[in-house]
Amino acid sequence: MSTSNFKNKCVAQVNCIYCDSLLCTRGMKAVLLADTEIELFSTDMPPNRTVDFVAGCYSTESCKCKLRDIACLKCGNVVGYHVVAPCKPCLLSCNNGHFWMFNSEAVSTINRLDASGVNLLLWGDLPELDGSEDESSDSLSEEEYLR
Ligand SMILES: [Zn+2]
Ligand SMILES: [Zn+2]
């Protein structure tokens, strides 16, 4: 399993096409394995305070993934879906850890530029999850060795 092709992909900013509010700054262009005519943008970071869940979980006919639609928090239009529980074949084939999808017909995207403002920002240039509020990682260093 190689992640190198994944790191060479452009980082896209994803905006709601209906109200133009910013949904996510870490979008990646993705193509559904089951249906290659549908264009999607995926992200590894749960969009924080920009989208909300609508309705309940459902599955598609192509596989057993549990999905849930997400809607723009500002205008209420459905912009994509979240993979709540991926099925085994999908988990094995989609190893980029992206479980948030935006439908390309519901969003507008802009490729982000790197710090120089000239080159496209690639996923390989990104730090691990910036702006994450996960505080579970700093508990490992607190071990004390008193003797
Ligand atoms: Zn919107
Ligand atoms: Zn699946």
TrEMBL record:
It comes from the Eukaryota. One of its GO terms (cellular component) is cytosol. InterPro entries: YPEH2ZP. Pfam families: YPEH2ZP (PF14976). Belongs to the FAM72 family. This is Protein FAM72A.
